[in-house]
Amino acid sequence: MSLTQEKQEKKQSNALPMVIIAGLFFILGFVTWMNGSLMPYLQQVLSLTPFQASLILFSFYIAVTFTALPSAAIIRKVGYKNGMALGLATMTLAALLFIPAAKTQMFPLFLLAQLIMGAGQTLLQTAVNPYVVRIGPEESAAARISIMGILNKGAGVVAPIVFTALILSGFTDTVGTELTQVQIDDMANSLITPYLGLAIFIGVLAFAINKAPLPELASEAEEGENKGQLKEVLSHPNLALGVVALFLYVAVEVIAGDTIGAFALALGVESYSVMTSYTMACMVFGYILGIALIPRFISQQRALTVSAVLGLVLSFGVIFGDNNSFAIANALSFILGDVQLPDTLILIAFLGLANAIVWPAIFPLALSGMGKLTSVGSALLVMGISGGAFGPLFWSLASGSSGQAVDLQSGYVVMLPCYLFILFYAVKGCKMKSWK
Length: 436
Fold this sequence. Notes:
This protein is mainly alpha-helical. 77% of the residues lie in helices and 0% in strands.
């Protein structure tokens, strides 16, 4: 067999696994970004304060912090394919928990469901991400990662629309009104059928993954060896500061993607549950822009600098903008149609454009020159996802307990120090090779 034929067969044999993995990335994005609709919906149904509502996101993202390393240990024990199936099975259990949570309207039960969903997501992420890199040629790994990223964020556009159509479509006239107990019961019960359907779908997918023709990957280095390298990894400022930068980036990404609905609800916008779609659409556009421009026309470092500056400018616009102005929506009527949204909401959505290429830029800059420490450094960087737990939490604390739009608007001030640190990392931190 010739070398060309061998490469062609390998490419064909990898095609089905990549389609399966692509589907998993879409599911990951769908479940993750549905939180942007779920948060204001539960805030309305359960009469939650901004702080209590932020716990819906906190319980989901905090799972990364304490389940990332155990997930890696599970993968080493059962393999990547079984790890994916177990992650999906855990997510199925979490979806089923939403049923008694909706029936009883018990907030702690919703938080438990979110925590288990986050744990299942972490296990699935731990298994599926290395697959993307190692299932095909190393030289095309970046292209595969970019495609998966677009699928993940694209699911973020679809999820709020589906949530609204299946759950919120009959309750648009409840915005800005005091709900009766009958309305509360109806809204809570509307979660049951969609989450039951989600549980069945993910459960079937878990069974299918277990039977799918996915080749097993070689196991990674032992955990003890990785622990021994941790101190050495942290001696590299570009990596250590990169972990902080990614933590803060995910914090602002989740604030922009998942609190926009709560802010829209406070502003009396009936379509509050689809607002996350606007942020995600901007992220997808930014992702495509990054693929086209980096590194052909602009370096990763310069792109990160531009993103941080744009994030700062938009943040100032959100904080000091006029909630009664619709100038941007009117200017973009050729895109938005007749949709009338306050300038501040659209500026939050535009943050998706500023955030899009931050992760792809920081990751390689942080791992530059790490050599044999790359795998341990990557694990630390991935743990930066836990920033998603704290960003909305700090936003809610800065907003106070009133739930008024003007107070929620002022809460976005927490994004400024985050973008300032990302700017510092882009200009100086990524170049630091020594703490001296």
